[in-house]
Specification:
seven-stranded mixed β-sheet; three-stranded mixed β-sheet; 10 strands; 29% helix
Length: 216
Amino acid sequence: MKYLGYSVNSGLENMKTDSDILENSIKNNFNDILIRLYGWNPKCISLGRNQKEFSHPADIDVVRRLTGGRALLHDDEITYSIVTPIDLISNGKSVIESYKYLSKIFIDFFKDLGVDLAFGENKKVSTHFDYCMLISTGADVCYKGKKIIGSAQCRKSGYILQHGSILYNYNKKLLESLFKEKIEGITCVKEVFPKMEKKEFLTMLEEYLIKQEKTY
């Protein structure tokens, strides 16, 4: 595994970087797991590949992801993206198993902090605008039954691009206003570690990923 660092960018820049890493990996037959972390400025809604657009405030950007899934508001979070050859990971041809293999990186990180996370159950929630964090699958990562990391994938030319949202905190009022639905069944780092600042959490996550570079 190779950690590529953390940066804060616009939604368009973030999606272009993910796309470029995927395309360059395919072109160069790169045989490793590449992982990067990023933030968003300004806050941004990302739509799944086939999802319809909807109205939104002028101060919130909108981009379309390469991956499928449902809409996300990227605000007070840390986003990750992973690019890897399918054949490099255990049971990579299975979508669910590949999700679990890659998500385990973050489960193990939280375990190092003394917190046990687990994969969610397959549970569909009826939503109006399909806010992604309200949809629970067997590949999502949860804390005490509440979703804390949501992920999505696309596959191209024998490679996987997986990216996901690690909620540090969230604005329930804003989410309910945007998606016109009751926000429940999710949690965030701030609720798990009330005294931990975002910068501290990010620093520990980066240090963990650097230490794991020769493990995965």
